[in-house]
Structure formats: structure tokens, C-alpha cells
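User: two proteins, same treatment. go.

Assistant:
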Amino acid sequence: MSSRDRWREHPVEYRTSRRSRRGQSLTVVLGFGILLVAFGLPLLRDGIWGPCTALEGRIVALNAAGVSFARNGQDIRTLAGLLAWTRPDVELTGGVAHRHVSAQDPLLPAWFGCYLRYWRVTIGV
């Protein structure tokens, strides 16, 4: 039985199933796109290949611009204080942020903690 014959026999049911499949596909594509932006934007924006390095770069740039981290949590303020003495021309490796995040949340992977803090710094400032 071809799809045209199924549509003639049950036009409403066939159209509904096609719409629901389209909706599911759209949901999957949108979800993937949101994850891609959330995990890829910090790296592409700063031209860096690691989330902890991107976090350090973001904090150093904001420190150089004189931005206050008062609206962020204590762990972000502590990390900003650790990086406050870093000159903008120094190459960042992500080690300070990696150690700080690992010490704050030992059960959370450091790369994921760096992503979370990157977005908290970006949105909170």
C-alpha cells in the first residue's frame, strides 16, 4: 500500500502522524542547536580551544575593563581575584580555572564546571 493510498483511507490520522514526526524532528534539531551554541560559542567567541581557558580569558578581559563581579557568586569573585593580577598579554592555559573549579565542585567534571561558570559570568555581568 503506497502512502497515497493510506492518505486516502485515513487522511486525518496520516496527516497527524506526519506532523508529530515533523515536530519531533524540529525539537531534536532545536535541542541540538541550543547545545551547540551553549558549548561552542565560548570557544568560538574567544578563539580558544578549552572551556577553562575561555573562562579565564573572559574574566581577565572583564577585569581589564574594570567590571565588578559583585553580582556573581563567591566562587566567581574568588576566581576573579586570583586572576586579577594576570596581565592581558599573558597567554592563558586554563590551569587556574581548572584547579579552582575542581576544588569547588569535585564531583563535577572540570570542563563542565568551566562552561557553567563562563555562562554565569557572561549573563551575570
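Protein 2:
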Amino acid sequence: MDDNATFTPLSETAQHRCRAAGSVSGWVLTCEAVVDQKAEDIQELLDGVRELIGERAIEPYGDWDDPRSAGFRIGGVPATFSIISEERLPERHFNIQIESYPPNDMDYLYNDRAVSMWRFLELVELICGPRDNWPTMMPR
């Protein structure tokens, strides 16, 4: 990688971290650099997703400015994942939404206001698999 390369969408600090890590440019670089600025519990959850999906890239989706939330897609999976960490929730629990991609294809696949990190990772694993195994929304 060129040491003089610049990455306009990233802050100077994020650019420095990416150069030091020897990352490549593109969505994965952007995601890794921005995730470094996330709250610890969001970072831990995203690390769990990376461990689960292996080589598939996590692509940022939506607004990444809030350190208490993240939206992302997983390469090859027709869904978007949104997670929000709220102080009122128990530790390692998140407000989540999983929606079809492209939008309006199937709408919400799953949403809940208090999902444990482990349950979220189970949902990711299900949605990365065959549609027959996807969770179904229950009326509230």
C-alpha cells in the first residue's frame, strides 16, 4: 500500500490506524477503521459476527457516526442488520432490526428491543444460511 495514500471518508486518526495495520482500501477498510471508534459492547458484537462469518466482508450500511449503534450487511446475504446499545437494556443486550435487502423485498425479517449478544449471533448464523431456516416474525 502507498504510505501517502489518503482516504477522504475517514478521519486523520482512522487513516493512520489503517496505514499502520496495512489494510487495503475499500469497504472493508472503511468498516474496520470506523468500527475502531465504536462503543466496547458494539465492537464486541461485531467481532463476534466476524468470527462467525469468517471471510465474508461486513459492509457498513446506514449511519456509522453513532458509537452506540451500527448498521451493516454481510456479503452475499440479502439482509441488513441494525444494532443499538441502550443503557436501559441489560448488559450485552441490544435493540436489533434485521430487514430484507434490497429494502421492501420482504420488509422486516426480525426485530426485538432486548436481544442478547449470543441470540443475535444465532440470528446472524440463521440468516446467513438457507431461507427455510430464517426466523419468522411473531405478531406483537
